[in-house]
Structure formats: C-alpha cells, structure tokens
From TrEMBL:
Organism: Capsicum baccatum
Biological-process GO terms, alphabetical: RNA 3'-end processing
Pfam families: MTPAP-like_central
Coiled coil: none
CDD domains: NT_PAP_TUTase
Record protein name field: Poly(A) RNA polymerase mitochondrial-like central palm domain-containing protein
InterPro entries found in the cross-reference section: MTPAP-like_central, NT_sf
Domain Poly(A) RNA polymerase mitochondrial-like central palm stretches: 9-146
Any GO molecular function: RNA uridylyltransferase activity
Domain of life per record: Eukaryota
Length: 271
C-alpha cells in the first residue's frame, strides 16, 4: 500500500467510525417526538412547534453529536421576536416540565448567554440544547445543508476537521475556541479557494438578505433548495482536496507511520 492509499484508507476508517448509523438517526427523531409531547403539555406553549437545527439538520453530525432544538412560538405568518426575559420564562417552564416528566439528566439552565439555553441529556445519552425562536440557527443550518448537497466531500471534510478539533480541545466556544459552525465555515472557505474551486460564493447559494429574511415572513426561512446549487461547478479531484487538507490533519491526528507518508505526499504536491 503506497502513501496515498494508506492516507485514504485511514481517513475512510475515521469517517466510518464517526458517521451516524440508522439507529443514531432514529434515537434523535424519537427524542424530538418526546420533546414535542413535553412542549404540548405546557399551557403557555400550546401552538408552538419544536424544530431541530444545527448539525443534525445540515447532516454534519457525528454518532455522538448533540441535538439543537428551537421552540418556535406562533405569531401568524411572521417570525416572532420574543425578548430575552420572556424566553427565559418559557425555558423555565420547559425545565419544570422536563423535571416532572423524568428521564432527563444533567439539566443545566444557562441564563447569562446571549441566547438562553436549556441543556440536558436524554434517555439515549444524547445531549440536547433547547432555545426559543432560534431562527438564525435554523437559517445557518439550512445554508450548510444546501452546501452539503453540492458536493459530498464537504461533509466528509467537516466531520474530519471536527474530530481533529475535538482531539486537540479546540472545539468549544465556552473556552474561547471554535464552535462547530465556525469550523464548517473554515471548510467552506477552503473549498471556495481551491484551484479549481469546489464551492461557489455564498451569495450564489443564498442570494437573499438574511437579516431581512429573519424578520420577514416565516415562509422565507423554509425556502426550498435554491436553483444555484444545481449549477455544475468544476470540481477538483478528491485526491487534491485530501492532500491540501493534510496540512491540517497529519501532525498528530493520525498514526506516526501515516504522518510520515502524508508529509512526503504533501511535500511532493507543493514542489
């Protein structure tokens, strides 16, 4: 097995170990179903909807990835803009309902964050973050999902970079490092600046104004896949993408014998 084959084999092994199985999807759908029942039991939240977002929606989550949930308040055809104090009150009601229902562990109510969050771990050992009217999170998730549909290598690269970041303790915004969304944007930029480019400019994927759309009709948040992603782009080969990305991965993330092979491949590719 030559150096490149060893590198490719190692990356595929990592991806196989982190990719969610069918049961991982099923457990998250079941957790969403249970949360909807909890929300429906709260009088003041009758009519609200439970909407997943984040890596689960953009299909960029690993087997042990958490689940982000936004409780969307009814407000006709326009996006509700509940204040922080009201959101804290509603999350407090959800906290009481979860405690009364039982089965939740590690309940944590984060009130001093810019976006108040209720965290807990459910019956399936899946960490869950609940927020109120997190439309910006839903929009970001949808854009990443659209990007994911352009080229499957984007998803593979995001998963690899996230695992690398976790291995080096640089994937936690609470400690001043990068969150998963920021890491995804780094991969987007890398794929946009490859020669030839793999991804188009974001304005070609989402031509609208996100600020306006987040305060306008709710239907805009649920827009279908834009036609832009159906436009064929000139893709670079997967081998060149992997080799360029090896500058990020080879130092400590992979075994030493693989590191040596990757260094040789990278040196040859840049000379």
């Amino acid at each position: 097995m030559n150096g490149y084959s060893l590198f490719e084999h190692t990356l595929q092994n990592i991806l196989r170990s982190v990719n969610p199985l069918e049961e991982d999807w099923s457990m998250r759908f079941q957790l969403i179903h249970e949360l909807r029942a909890v929300v429906e039991s709260i009088e003041i939240l009758r009519g609200a909807t439970v909407e997943p977002f984040g890596s689960f929606v953009s299909n960029l989550f690993t087997r042990w990835g958490d689940l982000d949930i936004s409780i969307e308040l009814p407000n006709g055809s326009y996006i509700s803009s509940a204040g922080k104090k009201y959101k804290l009150s509603l999350l407090g009601d959800v906290l009481k309902a979860l405690r009364a229902r039982g089965g939740c562990r590690k309940l944590q109510f984060i009130t001093n964050a810019r976006v108040p969050i209720l965290k807990f771990q459910g019956n399936y050992n899946i960490s869950c973050d609940i927020s109120i009217n997190n439309l910006s999170g839903q929009m970001k998730s949808k854009i990443l999902y659209w990007i994911n549909m352009i080229d499957g290598r984007f998803r593979d690269m995001v998963l690899l970079v996230k695992e690398w970041a976790k291995a080096h303790n640089v994937n936690d915004s609470k400690t001043g490092t990068l969150n998963s969304y920021s890491l995804s944007l780094l991969v987007v930029f890398h794929f946009q600046t490859c020669v030839p480019a793999i991804l188009p400019p974001l304005k070609e994927i989402y031509p609208g104004n996100m600020v306006d759309d987040l305060t306008g009709p709710y239907e805009l948040v649920r827009t279908p896949v834009p036609p832009a992603i159906l436009i064929p782009f000139v893709f670079s080969s997967i081998s060149s993408v992997v080799l360029i990305s090896s500058t990020i991965l080879y130092r400590e993330f992979l075994p030493e014998e693989t590191n040596f092979s990757i260094r040789l491949l990278h040196e040859r590719s840049v000379h």
